[in-house]
Amino acid sequence: MPISVIFLFTSLIVFWIIPAIGIAKNHLVDDRFFIRQWLFPMQYWLQLLFERISGNRRIVVRILQIMSLFITYFCGLLMLLVFSAFDINTAKHFSVFILFEYLLVSSIAYWFQPKAGKIYKTK
Q: Where are the transmembrane segments (predicted)?
């Protein structure tokens, strides 16, 4: 089995399946993040962690979310360095780039969020 397939399945399990099982198991249904929590379950866990750490202060949660983008970016660079260290041509492994983009989009997706308990009405 090629390393790109192993890498893709491992990443899928770590970044999506395990957090999604945790969300379903704990019955964490959040109306504010319903679609995003199922598209990006790992980032949803981070959102809950950031809210708990900051005491639900919006500005602190947003700063932590922005910092998570840069941490994701640098982890992606480390991932590419690991591939380079083993002399693996990353251009042939599309799954690496897809995972990298998925993690970056997931970090950005939680920057824009409604306030808790606020009801939005259309005019």
A: 6-24, 59-82, 94-112
State how many domains the chain has. Answer: 1
Question: Is 80 a member of any domain?
Answer: yes
For 23-48, the pLDDT digits (tens) are 888 777 667 677 888 888 888 888 88
Domain that holds residue 18: 3-109
Q: Is 5 exposed, middle or buried (0-12, 13-18, 19+ CB in 10 A)?
A: exposed
Determine the 3-state secondary structure of 68 from DSSP: helix
Q: Which residues contact 116 (CB under 8 A, 6 or more apart)?
A: 32, 56
**Who wins on pLDDT, 20 or 115?**
20
Distance between CA atoms of 50 and 64, rounded to whole angstroms?
A: 7
